[in-house]
Specification:
Radius of gyration: 45 Å
Oligomer: single chain
Structural class: mainly alpha
CATH topology of the domain at 155-379: MetI-like fold
Largest sheet: 2 strands, antiparallel
Strand order of the largest sheet: 1-2
């Protein structure tokens, strides 16, 4: 009986173990199915996100790869190879830069020679004889070629250099002074007073810059010659076609560029400076000459240089408007140094050209530092 009970107990235990195993298997199966279903559901939910974020996923993958590469320690051979490549790139950049610098230098040398050679030829030929200038224009004045200051002496006597020099100087100084004062005031007024009239005036000044002189020279010559004169007794007070009043004509032709440059500079002057001057009791005229005009110094000198070079070297306008016996330096050189049958005293001509160029060169040398300031001043508003 005891054996039978033991066998029954063992059978029960075995049955219980089998049932528990079956339950565990069922639980595992159900858990795996649930996890698979959950994963499938998550994949289904993430599928549209992944399709829309492929680029971001690719970028993150690249970033990870790059970070892995950075985290990886480089060997000494790899470091040396990278250093060599960097040095080669630097050398290539330096070679390209040197090549560009050489090309720029060559271009500047050519331009410099283009401008210097004519001046050098004038200086060389100004101390040669007439025949040598025509026969050997490029040779240095050596031996019998050199005549010293003879050409200068002869030219000064033949053209009456002192008279024509001071006449040209008077016309140039008066024209440049009037252009600077009138155009600076005009540019200041046009810039500060915003109206249709000032806008129209500004565009008219700009338009006058592109009108060639040949379009108006005949009309201008006719009006100037026939303009009424003011005569008191035997003294002529006002005559437009005279050196004393020629600055009026130059003011009309030089106002376009000058007003344009002054307008650009005035825009860069803070308005608070003028407001402070007005609060201190300055009238507009006093404010301009005491506050604004000193600030306009760089542009004023630039305008003075440009107009002085133009007026001093001008040939066509004085030749058309001035009466006989009122020649400026370019006209006197052209007329007085010509002989019969078109012959020209080249030695005296070269010497007078040297004397004509010297005043402008001296003025330019002493004022050159203001040119770039005046030209660039209106480029940036501050």
């Amino acid at each position: 009986m005891g054996k039978k009970n033991n066998s029954k107990n063992k059978n029960r235990e075995q049955i219980l173990k089998e049932e528990t195993l079956e339950e565990k298997l069922m639980d595992e199966i159900t858990d795996e199915g649930a996890s698979k279903a959950a994963k499938a559901q998550e994949q289904e939910n993430e599928a549209p996100k992944a399709s829309s974020g492929d680029l971001k996923a690719a970028e993150t993958q690249k970033d990870k790869e790059a970070s892995d590469v950075q985290k990886r320690k480089l060997t000494p051979e790899e470091i040396e190879a990278g250093r060599v490549k960097a040095l080669e790139k630097v050398k290539e950049v330096e070679k390209k830069k040197k090549r560009v610098d050489r090309i720029q230098f060559a271009v500047l040398v050519v331009l410099c020679l283009i401008y210097i050679i004519p001046i050098a030829l004038i200086l060389i030929n100004s101390v040669k004889t007439k025949g040598d200038i025509s026969t050997y224009p490029f040779k240095l004045p050596m031996g019998d070629m050199f005549v010293g200051i003879e050409n200068f002496r002869r030219g000064i006597v033949e053209i009456g250099f002192d008279k024509v020099f001071f006449r040209s100087l008077k016309i140039t100084l008066s024209s440049v002074a009037i252009i600077i004062v009138c155009c600076s005031m005009t540019g200041w007024y046009i810039t500060r007073v915003k109206s249709k009239i000032t806008s129209f005036l500004y565009y008219m000044f700009v338009f006058s810059m592109i009108v060639p002189f040949q379009m108006v020279m005949y009309t201008l010559s006719y009006i100037t010659k026939n303009f009424p004169r003011l005569v008191i007794g035997e003294v002529t007070i006002f005559q437009l076609c005279s050196p004393n009043w020629l600055w009026i004509v130059y003011l009309g032709f030089g106002a376009g560029l000058s007003v344009f440059m002054f307008c650009g500079f005035v825009k860069a002057i803070p308005l608070e400076i003028e407001e402070a001057a007005m609060m201190d009791g300055c009238t507009p005229l006093r404010m301009f000459f005491s506050v604004i005009f000193p600030i306009l110094k760089p542009t004023a000198i630039t305008v003075a240089i440009l107009n002085a070079m133009w007026v001093w070297n001008d040939y066509l306008l004085p030749n058309m408007l001035l009466d006989s016996g009122m020649e400026t330096i370019p006209i006197a050189i052209q007329k007085s140094l010509r002989g019969s049958y078109g012959s020209v005293d080249m030695g005296a001509l070269m010497a007078m050209l040297v004397l004509t160029v010297i005043p402008i060169i001296v003025f330019y040398i002493f004022s050159q530092k203001y040119i770039i300031k005046g030209v660039v001043a209106g480029a940036v508003k501050g």
